[in-house]
Design a protein that fits this description.
With 326 residues, the chain is mainly α. 55% of the residues lie in helices and 1% in strands. Strands 1-2 form a two-stranded antiparallel sheet. A hairpin with a 5-residue loop joins strand 1 and strand 2. Helix 1 packs across helix 7.
Length: 326
């Protein structure tokens, strides 16, 4: 009943059909990710995902990292046990912060600032380009993108089978453009099958009538066609000319050094922008820490790692901006 009476379609009734399928796709994906149960009630890490809604799709990618055990693999690669009570190595904390930075501080470096930084001979006290993720962690991001694409692809194919009667008719005359199966097929019917009944069934009939042929049978073709509509999280980004784009290191560098002046000089950001972005990262780390403390084992090394990350980043932030804690 709610889907049939959406207020978003009050002034545009023609959007009712699109909104219904969008909401059904969203509910299907949330149930696949274990964020809602069959009755639609939130479960698991739904509270964290909702709290970090403004970081979409980074919040869903973080959920995928937890599910794939990315942070526990970082501990295992450095020889740290899951229930270790000793002090966590600095390299482990920095690698976890690197993953968080790739998720929540995806800000591109302006080419001029990178060129200026490279011309300085790297004699500065601050880096400018965020280091790349190790291959195993980058594969986890690719797994998240593949799972998201699979959910969208499956829903589109199921929706296509249910809507074949309505989308195989001409828009004005409602004439059926798909020939009916019969024992004796004429040459015209065969020609219609060869031309009209193509993999274009995922495209609107107006597009087909305008001779804009789009083949969406291949998985990558469908992914590229819907790339702007699917909230994927690419490890490497390119511009319109195919040149690589680099992420800004400001959050990761601030965690390591806590130097705001170097960020103001080399990050290419305004002072006020740096303040708000660092504050947002501090709040993100606090939110993750709070959820892990409530849901995770108290002796888990990942929980303790995010406690250290949150405390260190907040301490650097308060010290840099002379914020006293009362």
């Amino acid at each position: 009943m709610i889907l049939n009476r959406s207020m978003m379609c009050a002034e545009k009734p023609e959007m009712q059909f699109v909104v219904q399928h969008f909401l059904l796709l969203a509910m299907d994906y949330l149930q696949r990710e274990g964020l809602i149960d069959r009755s639609g009630s939130p479960v698991g890490l739904a509270g964290l995902i909702t709290h970090l809604f403004y970081t979409d799709p980074a919040n869903f990618a973080l959920l995928s990292c937890f599910r794939q055990g990315v942070f526990h693999r970082i501990l295992a690669r450095h020889g740290v046990r899951r229930s270790a009570q000793s002090k966590l190595p600095v390299r482990v904390l920095e690698e976890m912060m690197l993953v968080v930075s790739h998720l929540f501080s995806r800000l591109f470096v302006h080419p001029f600032m990178k060129k200026k930084h490279d011309a300085s001979g790297r004699r500065t006290g601050s880096a400018i380009v965020l280091p790349s993720l190790p291959p195993p962690i980058a594969d986890a991001f690719a797994t998240y993108n593949a799972g998201l694409y699979s959910a969208v692809d499956t829903y589109l194919r199921v929706a296509r089978t249910n809507l074949v009667d309505t989308h195989c008719k001409l828009p004005l005359s409602h004439f059926d453009i798909i020939p009916t199966r019969s024992e004796a097929e004429t040459g015209i019917e065969m020609a219609l099958k060869e031309t009209a009944f193509k993999p274009q069934y995922l495209v609107n009939c107006f597009t087909i009538l305008s001779a804009q042929s789009v083949t969406l049978d291949d998985a990558m073709d469908l992914f590229q066609y819907l790339k702007k509509c699917i909230p994927v999280l690419q490890v490497e980004e390119t511009d319109q000319r195919g040149r690589p784009r680099f992420f800004n290191v400001f959050a990761y560098d601030f965690y390591k050094h806590g130097a705001v002046r170097n960020l103001e000089q080399w990050s290419g950001l305004q002072s006020s922008d740096i303040f708000h972005r660092l504050k947002d990262m501090s709040l993100v780390l606090k939110a993750i820490r709070r959820v892990l403390e409530e849901l995770g084992p108290a002796d888990d090394a990942v929980v303790r790692a995010f406690q250290v990350l949150s405390d260190t980043f907040t301490a650097n932030f308060n010290k840099a901006y002379h914020i006293r804690k009362y």
